[in-house]
């Protein structure tokens, strides 16, 4: 019978969760000591499970980006209007339920090829939806440009809400108004009224 592993997948997940919270509040330069102390382990666990501090930071971002992509994919439907609205609402719900991961994906952090790819992947569901809507004549313009501006508006609205700069009782209405304004910017004339504020 072999010796039990001291550093297992359960500990790895606990480190990722705790490190996500620290990175969201303190940035990527957080100390490993309070991290390992918060879950009752040692720095050797970080190196055993991740290889290095840099690989831990990379794993945090990859985990958060993957979670956001999964949340959007669950909202994927065929109707082009509902698909884009659904993605926006899924993005907002995920961000409000996972504020620390939201900060990790879009906050400060070292850039590596894997991190850059993970961050880029978070807008892929929206880009596919916009491309499809353009092909169906529902939206106009270059899909890449449309996606970037839609993303910027959605991201900005969510960020302001998470910062507490929107009154809680108005947050839903303000987000819906933002979506309606975004839609009018890119909808073809016959679909401009498909989304109401």
From TrEMBL:
<dbReference type="GO" id="GO:0000976">
    <property type="term" value="F:transcription cis-regulatory region binding"/>
</dbReference>
<dbReference type="GO" id="GO:0003700">
    <property type="term" value="F:DNA-binding transcription factor activity"/>
</dbReference>
<dbReference type="InterPro" id="IPR001647">
    <property type="entry name" value="HTH_TetR"/>
</dbReference>
<dbReference type="Pfam" id="PF00440">
    <property type="entry name" value="TetR_N"/>
</dbReference>
<dbReference type="InterPro" id="IPR009057">
    <property type="entry name" value="Homeodomain-like_sf"/>
</dbReference>
<keyword id="KW-0804">Transcription</keyword>
<dbReference type="InterPro" id="IPR025996">
    <property type="entry name" value="MT1864/Rv1816-like_C"/>
</dbReference>
<dbReference type="Pfam" id="PF13305">
    <property type="entry name" value="TetR_C_33"/>
</dbReference>
<protein>
    <submittedName>
        <fullName>TetR family transcriptional regulator</fullName>
    </submittedName>
</protein>
<dbReference type="InterPro" id="IPR050109">
    <property type="entry name" value="HTH-type_TetR-like_transc_reg"/>
</dbReference>
<dbReference type="InterPro" id="IPR036271">
    <property type="entry name" value="Tet_transcr_reg_TetR-rel_C_sf"/>
</dbReference>
<keyword id="KW-0238">DNA-binding</keyword>
<feature type="domain" description="HTH tetR-type">
    <location>
        <begin position="9"/>
        <end position="68"/>
    </location>
</feature>
<keyword id="KW-0805">Transcription regulation</keyword>
<feature type="DNA-binding region" description="H-T-H motif">
    <location>
        <begin position="31"/>
        <end position="50"/>
    </location>
</feature>
């Amino acid at each position: 019978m072999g010796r039990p592993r001291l550093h297992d997948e359960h500990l790895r997940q606990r480190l990722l969760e705790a490190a996500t919270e620290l990175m969201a509040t303190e940035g990527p330069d957080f100390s490993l000591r309070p991290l390992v102390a918060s879950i009752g382990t040692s720095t050797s666990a970080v190196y055993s499970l991740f290889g290095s501090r840099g690989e831990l930071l990379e794993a945090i971002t990859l985990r958060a980006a993957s979670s956001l992509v999964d949340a959007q994919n669950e909202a994927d439907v065929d109707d082009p209007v509902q698909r884009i609205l659904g993605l926006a609402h899924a993005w907002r719900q995920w961000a409000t339920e996972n504020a620390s991961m939201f900060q990790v994906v879009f906050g400060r952090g070292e850039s590596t090829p894997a991190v850059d790819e993970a961050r880029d992947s978070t807008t892929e569901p929206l880009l596919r939806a916009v491309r499809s809507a353009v092909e169906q004549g529902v939206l106009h313009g270059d899909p890449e440009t449309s996606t970037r501006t839609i993303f910027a508006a959605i991201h900005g609205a969510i960020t302001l809400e998470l910062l507490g700069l929107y009154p809680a009782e108005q947050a839903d209405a303000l987000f819906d108004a933002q979506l309606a304004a975004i839609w009018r910017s890119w909808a073809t004339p016959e679909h401009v009224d498909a989304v109401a504020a």
